[in-house]
Amino acid sequence: MEGILSERRSYVAGKWVEGDQPFAVENPADESTVTELPSTPLPEVERAIVEARSSFDSGVWADLAPAERARVLYAFLDHFAASRDALVATMIAEAGQPTSFAERAQFQAGLAIARGTIDLYLSMTHEETNPVPTDELLRGRVALSLRRHEPVGVVAAITPYNGAIIMAIQKLIPALMAGNSVILRPSPLTPLSSLVFGAAADAAGLPPGVLSVVVEGGSAGAELLTTHPAVDMVSFTGSTVVGRAILAQAAPTIKRVALELGGKSAQIYLPDAVEKVAAGALAVVATTAGQACVAATRMVVPQDRKDEVIETVSKAYSALVVGAPTDPKTTMGPVVSAAQRERCERFVALAVENGGRVARGGGRPAGLDRGYYFEPTVLDLPDNSNPAAQEEIFGPVISIIGYRDLDDAVRIANDSEYGLSGQVYGADTAQATAIARRLRTGAVNVNTALFSAYAPGGGYKQSGLGRERGTDGIRAYQEVKHMVVGELR
Question: Which part of the chain is the Aldehyde dehydrogenase domain (predicted)?
Fold first, then answer.
């Protein structure tokens, strides 16, 4: 396929490595093969780990001054930026993402997050005086008590298909800026675009072993990364099911684990904000086809206005243009695979079996015979116990649920094993904010949204452990050391 990234080799410890056991990277828009990509041989994954360990223990990267690490990473990002056209084309081809999403939500936002993360790191204090009562200092003959934030060591970064580039950036830049050595393993569904990071490391002159990019069609390499004793931390974004497996795999070696997992987020509309439902509903499915862990796929609205909301949302979804991601008119592309489309179909059927109603969509769009397309779908659910309200579908399906009063709205929103994100809309900002404070979720947007290097995101409950972005996202890749200093007597 013309215009996409040309590299097909893995990047291991500063060298490009020929792979074995080729696997097909499929274009979900037309079911064609984008390329045959050779897997990183398992001994090379092992070597990436060993060399990462060596590079970290030698201090070749970790011992550099933060300003020097920043200089190299700015050069790393300059190469990334120069790859724009081929990178965007690759993301469109392997993920089926409309051009606007690949260019703005991944490439442009990714660059902004990366540069902002470097700036944020440089603004933070990484060695600070530790508060200790004066009498304890005197009694212990202590001259100084310090708290240092030091790199964790070797980090395995495992990324998902739905935001391969921006999710990688959210892991790579804070981890590298903190002085860690990193092995990146992207999703087998969208591995090709992530090879840009190997090229960027090469161009910027990162010391060998500080960054490797390994690809595979299966999971053997990922399992090695999550179990190897030389790996100190695993950072994973993906499903809760896989997150649980990673926790179990990491347990014998007591690795630090950071997980951003599934979500079933709710968007609550106060009675004075119901006219905003069309925009909120479109945000769930437009450009991403609902394949976003933070997507607010449960719309919680006043029961006495539920029919009005269903009509409004159905009309908004009918206006969406579903089609080829490269067509400028397209506002929603396909889901990533046949299995993902079948999951959408299965949950629509389960919704109906359990008393729900399909108000709009529910199947494959007419006229699109090839590609993994699914209609933007509106489900009218009788209550929050419906399977479509409880399970993450990860497709263009929104569920509309009525509430009796605001206490009931909060109950519905919190009635989930997930807690990744949430939204509250209300003309009375104070009231809407009070509702937001009651939601058991890692982030809540009240009448607006913010995606920034300076704002953390992450989950409560089974939506994960730890945070990405913000100061918390940087501290995730650091250990805390207490140093006490006294005079020798």
Answer: 16-482
